Amino acid sequence: MAEQNWAGTTYGNNWMHKWLIRLLRFIDTRILYLFVAIFIIPVCLILNPSRGIAYRFFRKRMGYGRLKSAWKTYVNHCLFGQVVVDKFAMYAGKKFKVEIEGYENFARLAAKKEGFVQLSAHIGNYEIAGYTLVCENKRINALVYAGEKESVMRNRDKMFADTNISMIAINPDMSHLFEIDKALEEGEIVSMPADRISGSPKFIEHDFLGAKARFPLGPFSVATIRSLDALAINVMKTSLTSYKIYVTPLPYDKTTSRQEQIKQLSGAYVAELEKRVRQYPTQWYNYFEFWNEND
Length: 295
What we know:
Elements: H1 14-24, H2 29-47, H3 50-61, H4 66-91, E1 97-101, H5 103-110, E2 116-120, H6 127-132, E3 140-145, H7 150-160, E4 165-170, H8 176-185, E5 189-193, E6 203-208, E7 211-216, H9 218-225, E8 230-239, E9 242-249, H10 258-279
Parallel strand pairs: 1-9, 2-5, 2-8, 3-4, 3-5
Antiparallel strand pairs: 6-7, 8-9
Helix pairs in contact: 2-4, 3-4, 9-10
């Protein structure tokens, strides 16, 4: 598998972000969607290697023909552009219609004394969950990349101010692991992505969309070390102005060996991720060689 290089930051500088937020306070997001689709995405498709990666995803993993794969590659990039616009639209105070499927799974675990783990992926727009799926009696600790732009982190802080959510920065020295352990020890919630290897090189391999793929061992190890419950949270864009949050429990046998627990939990996560990717293939936003091209 090719190395999964990803900066972990939002494109653009602080000045650009500031003016984008100001602009979105006065104009409809759909105007920016159109601008991005006509002027920005074609340039990105020419200059960015994500074009070939997305095309191979649709050809090899989804089994589409050449023309359909090319069209879906364009749509995929347009939807990613919409997700970025939506994020800044929320910072500007705009609201989206959000439907939650499986909220009772979240509420049941939130009512318990013990903490639990939420596992996300780079599909759809997970950040929407941070402003919608909130818990009054438990703090939610969301892992974010330490190198993210200052403007994005500042706006997240502002948005999270009234939602009992704090952020744990993922650092190269792995010091964030101590914060994660402390949060779970105190019965809080930890939210982390489980589809990209970052920091630690340890991984677990699963069949995913017809080929072997590597997933980070860390998130599953964090949950199983305390035999904690885990949820998969995926937030998918369903229309220009609405999203749907899928809250799915990830069962595993907590009485078996630790190695087997990790295998079962990661398998449940991968199965749920595959289900959502097949349901929303154009919202797969992992722009690196996720699968071994020699498979």
